[in-house]
Model the fold of this input.
Amino acid sequence: MINFLRDRTSTAVPILRGITRLSPIGVDVGDDAVTLVQLTNNGKGVSLVAGANENRPAEISFGSVEWQMWALESIRKITSNGHFRGKEVVAAIPQADLFIDYVKMVRTEGRKEETVPVDDAVISKIKRKLPFEFDDALIKYIPAEEGNALVMAAERKIIDRHLAIYENAGLAIKSIGIWPLAMAKCYARFFGRRQADIDAVVYLLDIEANCTNVVISRQENLLFARSIPMGANQLGGEETVSRLVLELTGCRRHFSSMYKRSCIERLVFLSGRAVDKDICVAIAKQLEMPAQMGDCLGAVDYTGLSESGVDRRDCRVNWAIAFGLSLS
Done:
């Protein structure tokens, strides 16, 4: 996981009998909900320890002081319900607060080809594109394939705001990461485990209430990411689905222009039961791509040591990013 913060020393996690590795709590604070997940790995597979979700009240605006207080109280209430173990968390900057762009790494001429230091390349190509002041930005880059790199940036004040939420909720922050890598990690761990999947390039879709998160990756190797401001709440008919497909087609064309030697093999929906299956089928048909449904809850076992707080029977929560964060 690429972190905006260095890993921090955290409080000790209680040892549970029969569990070899208790993962940190993955915290996905989106614009419409707060979702928390904690997983564990016993060496044979991944199990769900706890999970919870709280939807943002309609009268509270995302990013406002009221939203910050709501997020704080929601996280505090969820983590004190007895299902979660320990206080260590891995969180992600919300999609609306994370800037994503791409750079082509420049090479200099000479007797040997040498790559220009990435910091110089990032500064020269990305500085003028940022929607906030460069001096106020924290920037991380992820080298990709064919000389490409993904650049992620967030405002310091936004990161500080999220740090305040977790610290005031009594949590120990292991790291703050990014949602695209969480999606790629979730896919690779649960839905891309066959030998044939190792080198396959996949188009991952995470349809949330008011946005659709797009990731194109080769296993956990991130190649492309974008968040489209259109989600399940806006997909009410054929016309709106077609509008989303146009955006998704644009993402695929952008990817193809960057990666001449790579071809996307299939579409993977990571929304589970949070999105109507008919919508996913319609998207796959219009994109003319083979598709796979990825239900995180169906991919893990329960620990059996305590109630997880999750009812699998009719769960309409989108778990993918929180699952990926807990795997970090």
